[in-house]
């Protein structure tokens, strides 16, 4: 099934497993989904909850809110 979407926010769970991702340009040479402050090299693909995405709290439930707010503001600006 093919689904056409404009934006994906990748919010992770307890463990990271990027081995199943088959998106050209999304993974680095080690098979890890890369991002800079939640923005991946793939247009429209964003992440949340990754270890050290922005700082030590990025993957912790009590702190991921900061990254989520930053990313949400960025997406709103882009949509304007």
Structural commentary:
Helices cover 20% and strands 10% of the residues. It is an alpha+beta fold. The protein has one domain. It has a two-stranded parallel ribbon. The mean pLDDT is 85.
Overview in brief:
The chain has one helix spanning about 65-80, and strands at about 10, 45-50. The protein has about 80 residues and is an alpha+beta fold.
Could you say which structural class the secondary elements and strand pairing correspond to?
A: alpha+beta
Report the sheet with the most strands, covering strand number, pairing sense and barrel closure: 2 strands, parallel
**Count of strand segments:** 2
* Percent strand: 5-15%
The spatial strand order of the largest sheet comes to: 1-2
Percent helix among the residues?
10-25%
Low-confidence stretches: none
Work out the helix count.
Answer: 1
Fill in the keyword field for this structure.
alpha+beta; globular; 1 helix
What's the layout of helices and strands?
Elements: E1 8-11, E2 45-48, H1 64-79
Parallel strand pairs: 1-2
